[in-house]
Design a protein that fits this description.
The protein has helices spanning 3-6, 10-32, 35-52, 62-91, 104-122, 126-137, 142-149, 153-170, 175-183. It has 187 residues and is mostly helical.
C-alpha cells in the first residue's frame, strides 16, 4: 500500500497525527525517558513521513510503520548521543564531562538506573540477595561466601546466576540508559 493512497490530504495526515501522536510519544519516552525529547522524536518521525509521502511505500499498516519509524528515530538518536559522549571522552582529559553538573540528563539516567538496580536487588529471595550482595558489593569469592553461609560453592554459583538473571530481566527496559552509561564507562 502506498502512503500517498492512505493519506490523500493534509486533513488525512492531520487525523493520522492526532490518532497516533500520544501513543508514539509513550513509545519514544520508553527510549528517551524525557518527555520533551520524546515529543521531538515523534515530531521528527512525522516530519520524515510528510517529506517522503509521495514516494514512500508502506507494506504494513500506517500504525505499524509509525511505531517502527519512531523506534528507529529514537535508536538513531541514542547511537548518535553515544558517539558524541565517546568523542567527548576521547577528546578531553576529563573523562566524565557529560555527567557533570552541566549534564543533568546524564545524572538523571544514572540515578534512575541506580534506583532500578536497588529495587531489583530488593525483590530477590533473601538467600539469593545475600549471596549477590556478598559477591558484588562485598567482593567476596565463591569460596568465601560458601564458608560464611555454610553452603556449597555450587549453591553460591546457582544463587548468583539466579540473582543476575532476575536483575537483568528487571532492567531490560533500561537498555538505552545502560548503553549511554556504558559509552561513558560508568557501568
Amino acid at each position: 500500500m502506498s502512503l500517498h493512497g492512505s493519506l490523500k490530504s493534509t486533513a488525512d495526515f492531520g487525523r493520522c497525527y492526532e490518532a497516533y501522536y500520544p501513543m508514539l510519544c509513550m513509545i519514544a519516552y520508553e527510549y528517551t525517558r524525557d518527555k520533551v525529547l520524546a515529543e521531538e522524536m515523534v515530531g521528527d518521525t512525522f516530519l520524515a513521513l510528510w517529506e517522503k509521502r509521495e514516494s514512500l511505500e508502506i507494506t504494513t499498516s500506517v500504525k505499524n510503520y509509525l511505531i517502527k519509524s519512531t523506534q528507529n528515530t529514537c535508536l538513531q538518536y541514542l547511537r548518535k548521543k553515544k558517539l558524541q559522549i565517546r568523542r567527548i571522552s576521547d577528546e578531553t582529559e576529563w573523562e566524565h564531562i557529560p555527567w557533570s553538573d552541566d549534564y543533568p540528563l546524564g545524572q538523571l539516567f544514572e540515578k534512575e538506573l541506580s534506583d532500578k538496580i536497588a529495587q531489583a536487588i530488593e525483590t530477590l529471595p533473601p538467600k539469593c540477595r545475600e549471596v549477590f550482595q556478598l559477591s558484588r558489593i562485598d567482593e567476596m569469592s565463591y569460596s568465601q561466601i560458601a564458608g560464611a553461609l555454610q553452603i556449597s560453592e555450587n549453591t553460591v554459583k546457582t544463587q548468583l546466576k539466579t540473582a543476575l538473571s532476575r536483575i537483568r530481566n528487571a532492567l531490560r527496559d533500561y537498555l538505552p540508559i545502560v548503553l549511554i552509561l556504558l559509552a561513558n564507562g560508568r557501568v
